[in-house]
Amino acid sequence: MFNSTRIDQFKNIPTPFYYYNMELLENTLDLIKTEASRYGYHIHYAVKANANPKIMKLIQTYGFGADCVSGNEITRSLETGYTANKIVYAGVGKSDREILTALEAGIFCFNCESIPEIELINELAEQTNKTARIAIRINPNVNANTHHYITTGIEENKFGINRWEFESVLETLEQSKNIELIGLHFHIGSQITDLSVFKGLCLRINEIQEWFKERQILVNHINVGGGFGVDYKHPDENPIPDFVSFFGIFKEFLNLTPSQELHFELGRSVVAQCGSLISKVLYVKNGVNTKFAILDAGMTELLRPALYQAYHKIENISSNGEEEVYDVVGPICESSDCFGKAVSLPSTKRNDFIALRTAGAYGEAMASRYNLRDIADSVFSNEL
């Protein structure tokens, strides 16, 4: 991915920075659009993965909608060209102000996660003389078999409405005159690479739909969320996830009526592989049993390894020397500021360029100014 010409272009750019391969992003979007269009599926880009305006504007040109989890994400989506009638709004803790932002914009749908939330949206909709379209976010109790921090579809999670609450939800909806139920929403977790998990989700949705049909409730929209994973270990061998098989699972196993439309909220699988965090080596320090490669990027630029020990492939893109083993760490005053232990790299020295791969999702989006550090710039392949 990084040839000598590209590395030469990096030499005048202050590090650390996020580098985006826009050709790869376009190729990914082309495949998503082709496969989703085959079945008439609707795609909403999950803004939380990466809210960079240039990234969002490109995705919008493919006709996709936006999946937002805050009022500011709704505002950013509108600013970057997404139409309100393709914006869905999820989140377990929507504030009054955020709900009013969404109502004023006239978004397509609120994905509601609790009875108190439905009651509040109804109250605010009544105050503003509006009707809010909602989908019930249902906790299907399907284990995504992923990291416990990013599993969202089992009963002990804070997300969604459990099956034992259904009757109470229907009673609430009956009393909520400014609410229109248009859909059922599901999202079971993130970074799911076992497609059988999505088959299990389809079968569970079929069961849940039967419960609603028995009560003469048929919604027009089913939203299965996102969660499709990417290959962090082999980003060059598998730069684009297998969307053919992914969409095919839902076509094969999900029972929809002719009037129902299927929606997806894809984030990581869209943008993760197109982004890398580019850093320079500040120092190579000899420890008692290991060498430390100390970078000018840290957990403030890529939080995932510190947050839940996530793996990112680490490459020295400057050196062709003999392999040595390093602990690759950042400059932040926290012991958790470590990108990888016992990482095999070509012989590494000060000012070498290090690429932390598959950082297009939840890299820039989770950046912070801890230690009063500057927010890193973004660099785009089509602008070099």
From TrEMBL:
Pathway: Amino-acid biosynthesis; L-lysine biosynthesis via DAP pathway; L-lysine from DL-2,6-diaminopimelate: step 1/1. Residues 40-272 form the Orn/DAP/Arg decarboxylase 2 N-terminal domain. The active site is at 333 (proton donor). Substrate binds at residues 268, 304, 308, 334, 362. The keyword Transferase does not apply. Pyridoxal 5'-phosphate binds at residues 227, 265-268, 362. Its cofactor is pyridoxal 5'-phosphate. Its EC number is 4.1.1.20. GO terms for molecular function: diaminopimelate decarboxylase activity; pyridoxal phosphate binding. It catalyses: meso-2,6-diaminopimelate + H(+) = L-lysine + CO2. Pfam families: Orn_Arg_deC_N (PF02784). The modification N6-(pyridoxal phosphate)lysine is found at residue 48. One of its GO terms (biological process) is lysine biosynthetic process via diaminopimelate. It is an enzyme of class 4 (lyase). Keywords: Amino-acid biosynthesis, Decarboxylase, Lyase, Lysine biosynthesis, Pyridoxal phosphate. Homodimer. HAMAP family: LysA. Specifically catalyzes the decarboxylation of meso-diaminopimelate (meso-DAP) to L-lysine. Belongs to the Orn/Lys/Arg decarboxylase class-II family. LysA subfamily. This is Diaminopimelate decarboxylase. It comes from Marinifilum breve. The lineage of its organism: Bacteria, Pseudomonadati, Bacteroidota, Bacteroidia, Marinilabiliales. The gene is lysA.
